[in-house]
Amino acid sequence: MPEMVFEYILKQQGISPDQVDIVQNIDFGSTAAAFSGGQGTYTVEFEPHATLLEQQGDGYVVASLGEASGYVPYTAYCVRKGYLEDHQDVIQGFTNAIQKGLDYVNSHTAQEIAAVIAPQFTDTDEETIAVIVDRYKNQDTWKADTIFTEESFNLLQDILQDAGELENRVPYEDLVTTQYAQKAAEK
Asked: For residue 162, what is the enclosing H or E element?
């Protein structure tokens, strides 16, 4: 997905991916180390690797794919129709919990968030986590709610289609339900 988004952004900027030498044979978890070792001029990284590259003096974050692409639904929760019908309380509770997390990150400082989540990131110190959280806040990474909009759905399909991974578009209403997200956002 990161490469598809990257190539989509390049094309939106009038740059053909054929004009860029994109190395595709490095495991995504190893790209930061490869970049530090001299492989490539640019790298696409998730956190904490982007911030660690900066802290080590091996690189600089020059752009955010998330900012450049718009709200691409990287994370979507899928269930079978039967489960959705039979366990609406579970789906609503899960959605409420995700919304509660979004409410928290959108109403607290990077330092407060880092202090709460640090135990989940034992390999990264709290100060670095705060830098990463602050970057995410400044980039408007976290939406205010979990509502999967038709605009984001269509953007995802544009990216997948542009990458040759989607032959036929699917109507939004055939795959997406927002009733649980809307209810969670109302609380």
From this structure: helix 150-162
Number of H helices, E strands in the chain: 11, 0
- The answer to whether 32 and 43 have CB atoms below 8 angstroms apart is yes
Check if the beta carbon of residue 78 is closer than 8 Å to that of residue 148. Answer: no
Single-letter amino acid, residue 100: K
Write the pLDDT tens digit of every residue in 146-184.
999 999 999 999 999 999 999 999 999 999 999 999 999
Say yes or no to pLDDT of 58 above 90.
Answer: yes
Cα 68 from Cα 75, distance rounded (Å): 18
pTM attached to this predicted model: 0.83
**Separation of alpha carbons 143 and 106, rounded Å:** 8
Cβ density class 70-93: b for 16+ within 10 Å, e for less: eebeeeeeeeeeeeeeeeeeebee
- 3 near 22, Cβ under 8 Å? yes
Q: What is the spatial distance between Cα 5 and Cα 187, in angstroms, rounded to a whole number?
A: 33
Residue type, position 116, single letter: V
Give dist(CA 31, CA 29) in Å, integer. Answer: 6
Find out whether 130 and 111 touch, Cβ atoms under 8 Å.
yes
Contact, 98 vs 146, CB < 8 A? yes
